[in-house]
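Q: My collaborator sent me two sequences in one message, no labels, and asked for predicted structures for both. Can we handle them in order? The first one she listed is below.
A: Yes, handling them in the order given. First sequence, followed by its structure tokens:
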Amino acid sequence: MQSLVSQFVQSVLDMPGKFIDIAMADPLSAVLILVGAVLVGAASAVFGYLTLGAVVSLVIRPGSGPSPPREAQ
């Protein structure tokens, strides 16, 4: 198990160098990597913003969930 974790950490550390090698091979590759990074970054920012808003909403107003339906008269 320790070997698997160390291999994962090593591959994460090697990844930026491999991305740079691929980006330098062809101008189109560099553009595609840049567009992919922007799309992933934007999606992560939106998800983070929504998650942060939900957590803040729970902390500030913990009892502000949907109210039970009113009884019919």
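Q: And the one she listed second?
A: Here it is, processed independently of the first:
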Amino acid sequence: MRVSRTQAAENRETVINVASRLFREHGFDGIGLKDLMKGAGLTQGAFYKQFASKEDLAAQASRRALESAFTRWSAAIAATPEDPLGAVLAFYLSVGHREKKMDGCPLVALASDAARQGSEVKASFEAGIKAHLEVLGRLIAETKDSEAKGKAMAVLSLMVGAMTLSRVVNDTDLAQAFLDAAAEQIREVVASPERGR
């Protein structure tokens, strides 16, 4: 049976959305095309009508996952305009975020996998990282700090690293300690005055 262009476009979006979640849960190499397509309710044969390769899908899914993460940051900022950085930290460095691997930060779930992928996947991650750094830079710049870009890089690194470490340990107290320590260090980084040259 032939599929309409509208249905084909909807199927493509479904596959990208499902893949963005399943890749975060299993990694790029931890799930095959058959299971990805099954998760989207489609056959593996439909894949090749929609995507040039699994890497093409991985790049599209990575872009979607990073857009979703950016949307969550924006929602947290909008919900707490009096302390936007605090709002981002509160949701990002939380037990809830740690437990939601399929819907969590793709930088935590897939960065090490992305480092081993081709340039298209890396480009998706690079664009997402730059968008996150821009938001953090703006939030930090509101403190009238001329070193906002460097601090944004440090803050993002602390956030991603702490969440990654909190997910790989069994000890829930240690997992929480990573998140708490990161939040404390981030506040110190942001509050510290510009260093003299």
